[in-house]
Design goal:
This protein is an alpha/beta fold and 305 residues long. It has two domains: 4-156, Rossmann fold, CATH 3.40.50.10740; 167-303, Glucose Oxidase, domain 1 (3-Layer(bba) Sandwich), CATH 3.50.30.60. 28% of the residues lie in helices and 23% in strands. The protein is globular and about 50 Å long. The strands form two sheets. A seven-stranded mixed sheet has the order 6-10-9-8-7-12-13. The two termini are 18 Å apart.
């Protein structure tokens, strides 16, 4: 398949109407429409994508209806989320998981969409893609790798991870199911049926600039919370995303802080990987089997077929 038949844009978190609040984002929206259209024969927007309420989102009913429509539509190959936000965890108890399971699609997004990417995998067994939101395709500095990575997902369901700036925190080798994403969003699944099993998993974790000035402390705090819930007991490895410039993270200090976590001493940890909030990001397949190897001779991160 060289092109998707139809890509539909949904807004399960913040409304797509928020793109029209500034000239900058309105321009991005128009550019994104033009660029995403190159991946498909038809680009559409769900009926309620532009509905907006006092929380810059839309009603639970509207967002759930749009997701059900997108999955149930036989013409749709790709479901792309408009943007992130804060509240797509509100939808989980209302989603028809049987409908989703019976209608596999390429589902893509990041940030708050971490919640849906992991919940869909857990509840339906379908892999999802922690990659780009629709609006990212409208950036003035659109990176060629963003286009290439998206084409590979649509054509081949293939993922290639760049290791150019990655560094090793802990040496080791492991293989497991890839889960995770934005850590604060992933934490919303803790204690629910929607949380994927962390046993024998490779955990992706990254933060965002909204925690500027204390991102490293929030990050470590959340890691300890997962450990204290016994969720990382049989974890196989960690892939740690790059922080944004506003976070002013000292990687040497962060490595030291993580080295003090006894429960993580014996698993490979690779840091400084570009994904989610760090642009241009890599695309990770949630629910895909991934192998990592961190040695003095180099770093390997590869998906298994």
């Amino acid at each position: 398949m060289n092109k998707a038949n139809e890509i539909i844009v949904v807004a399960p978190s913040a409304s797509a109407q928020t793109f029209f609040k500034t000239v900058k984002y309105e321009r991005r929206f128009q550019n994104a429409k033009k660029n995403v259209s190159k991946f498909c024969h038809k680009l559409s927007f769900s009926r309620n994508a532009f509905e907006i309420d006092n929380n810059a989102s839309s009603s639970i009913t509207s967002r759930v209806d749009d997701l059900h429509y997108a999955f149930d539509n036989k013409n749709v190959d790709v479901i792309m989320c408009a943007r992130g936000g804060y509240n797509c965890n509100e939808l989980l108890r209302y989603l028809n998981w049987d409908l989703i399971q019976k209608n596999p699609k390429i589902f893509m997004g990041f940030s708050d969409i971490t919640v849906l990417c992991n919940a869909i995998y857990q509840m339906s067994g379908l892999p999802t893609y922690l990659g780009y939101n629709f609006i990212d395709y409208g950036r003035d500095d659109l990176n060629p790798n963003v286009i290439l990575n998206t084409q590979n997902i649509i054509k081949y369901h293939s993922v290639h991870i760049s290791k150019d700036e990655a560094i090793v925190f802990n040496y080791g080798e492991a293989e497991g199911i890839c889960i995770g994403g934005n850590l604060s969003s992933f934490m919303l699944l803790k204690g629910t049926m929607y949380m994927p099993r962390v046993d024998n998993a490779i955990l992706l974790i990254e933060s965002d600039h909204y925690l500027a000035g204390g991102a490293d402390r929030f990050f470590i705090r959340n890691l300890y919370s997962l450990i204290q819930d016994n969720l990382l007991n049989n974890l196989k490895g960690i892939l740690l995303g790059q922080f944004e410039e506003d976070d002013n993270i000292n990687l040497i200090k962060l490595k030291h802080d993580i080295s003090n976590i006894t429960e993580l001493k014996d698993i490979p940890i690779i840091a400084n990987i570009k994904f989610s909030h760090k642009y241009p990001s890599e695309i990770f397949k949630i629910g895909g089997k991934i192998a990592i190897n961190a040695s003095p001779n180099g770093i390997e991160i590869n998906y298994r077929s």
